[in-house]
Amino acid sequence: xxxxxxxxxxxxxxxxTTLIYLLRRxxxxxxxxxxxxxxxxxxxxxxxxxRTCLRINPFLRCIGGxxxxxxxELERVAHDLRYITLLRNPIQRYxxxxxxxxxxxxxxxxxxxxxxxxxxxDFQTRKIAGSNAVAEAKRLLAERFFLVGVAEQFDEFLVExxxxxxxxxxxPCHTARNVATGSTSVVTDRFEDYEARIRANxxxxxxxxxxxxxxxxxxxxxxYAGDFSSALMQFRSRNQQDRGTDARLLLDAISxxxxxxxxxxxxxxxxxxxxxxxx
Length: 279
Known about the structure:
The protein is an alpha/beta fold. It has a domain at about 5-90 and about 135-180 and about 215-270. It contains 12 helices and 5 strands. The chain has a 5-stranded parallel sheet. The model has no long low-confidence stretch (mean pLDDT about 90).
């Protein structure tokens, strides 16, 4: 039986980099970081883009990227497609995004300016629904997603994913990657001064996160085949062991850097887009 095509909707600052590493390690040359390849994609990875990626790598069984959306009709190209995603506590994700902009992207923004940046408001809802329509985001999570998790329960998500992918072998052992460093003291030291505006800017995300943690994930957990608590305990015990360097990832890195990324970059350039970038 053909394995489904797994599509990871990668929401910024929600443990996605660690999951991407895991997907690469498990799927190796059958995994691809994807980006929009046509200017008409408008920053969204479309069915047309997926068709091109399947020509670049016809053996794909897993894709991931910031531009993947559950409303972009990728199923027209891959009928066996399965979406997965990770959400994060909206307040913490919002603060982490600001920290990343200031410390890693070197944006010279005050937090007050960031508060006024509307595209960052209800960011997770917009990633899922394409707008701040939280009811639509809930519907999409409930109806179109193979699995939904939250960054705060990352191990639980991995154990569930391992179970749902059977009989495909999936090793969930990992090391956390791209963990934020630096200080958000400019925000946290005066959090009470900003709290009302932060919550207002993320009101729909807070509602979506509550839906995921209070309704959707408990339903997923109840459907787990086996003793979930025992499986989680066994995984955490194994995950503490030193696994050393996985030499197989060298082949993956060579393939990405020598073939996949340059090919997609060239296609983007031919279609009037920057060679680099997630969108």
